[in-house]
Inverse folding.
């Protein structure tokens, strides 16, 4: 076997109460492997607010603070300020929040934290809806998806319009480092998180984390579907460091978007013209990303 670059130490243990095949569980596991024990995690209302277990059980080996839905950015800013006041510089402060608590409810606090250049990590584990409260549409729900608030009926009331591009929103804040990561590619995931330990200032990560419950696919297909999101160019893996774009995985054989969509019940209602529209969007965004990488290569 080839040598892995992933640390062996486990800081997330059995006993959590995630659903079967939860991508958010793997996202937390890989993040903690990258950052180590000298880490404090702040979690708002989201799946992970309950997944870590109920007292006296606890699935994580690091301190965790549960906060309100909208305040993750403010919470980690306060923790960082308290540690700095005590002269403690070697502790990683992480906001670990879902897509709804990031792109919608918590975007104001996150924007403030990164605008102040606070030395923090922020990981958005993206399962593309408000899963913990009933699979409601979020600003990160992709076009065409069924949710309980974008039901599929005779009028075709599925999600209209693309998801918010949080990486580009963070790039617009001119932060030192932002990246996409995906639970199907653990070595890329861990490497990018670990890289942030050597960067002073805010680090933002968009973590792709499928939800079998909300996406309506078998739990055992979770990693396969996560990989297909990358290989169809719907969710490219790249990083932006000081304005310089670098793609970290270019699919050797691109797969059609429809192959990714057809494995998920939330997309089974889509007519061919909408699937073709999603394909065109993925192709356009990939070409734009390639151009950004080329343009910023000499930065």
């Amino acid at each position: 076997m080839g040598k892995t670059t992933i640390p062996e130490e486990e800081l997330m243990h059995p006993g959590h109460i995630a659903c079967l095949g939860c991508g958010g569980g793997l996202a937390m596991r890989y993040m903690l492997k990258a950052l180590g024990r000298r880490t404090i995690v702040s979690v708002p209302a989201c799946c992970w607010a309950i997944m870590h277990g109920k007292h006296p059980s606890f699935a994580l080996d690091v301190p965790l603070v549960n906060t309100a839905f909208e305040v993750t950015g403010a919470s980690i800013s306060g923790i960082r300020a308290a540690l700095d006041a005590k002269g403690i510089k070697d502790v990683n402060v992480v906001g670990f929040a879902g897509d709804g608590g990031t792109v919608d409810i918590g975007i104001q606090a996150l924007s403030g934290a990164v605008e102040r250049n606070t030395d923090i990590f922020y990981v958005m584990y993206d399962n593309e809806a408000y899963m913990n409260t009933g699979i409601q549409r979020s600003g990160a729900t992709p076009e065409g998806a069924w949710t309980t608030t974008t039901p599929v009926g005779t009028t075709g009331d599925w999600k209209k319009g693309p998801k918010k591009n949080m990486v580009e929103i963070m790039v617009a804040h001119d932060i030192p480092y932002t990246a996409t990561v995906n639970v199907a590619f653990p070595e890329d995931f861990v490497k990018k998180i670990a890289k942030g330990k050597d960067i002073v200032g805010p680090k933002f990560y968009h973590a792709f984390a499928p939800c079998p419950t909300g996406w309506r696919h078998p739990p055992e297909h979770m990693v396969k579907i996560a990989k297909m999101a990358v290989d169809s160019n719907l969710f490219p893996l790249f990083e932006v460091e000081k304005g310089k774009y670098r793609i970290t995985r270019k699919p050797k054989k691109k797969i059609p978007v429809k192959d990714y969509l057809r494995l998920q019940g939330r997309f089974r209602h889509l007519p061919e013209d909408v699937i073709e529209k999603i394909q065109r969007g993925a192709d356009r965004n990939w070409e734009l990303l390639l151009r950004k990488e080329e343009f910023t290569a000499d930065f």
In short: The domain at 23-295 is CATH 3.40.50.970 (Rossmann fold). The mean pLDDT is 95. The beta strands are 39-43, 64-66, 92-98, 121-126, 177-182, 203-208, 237-241, 244-249.
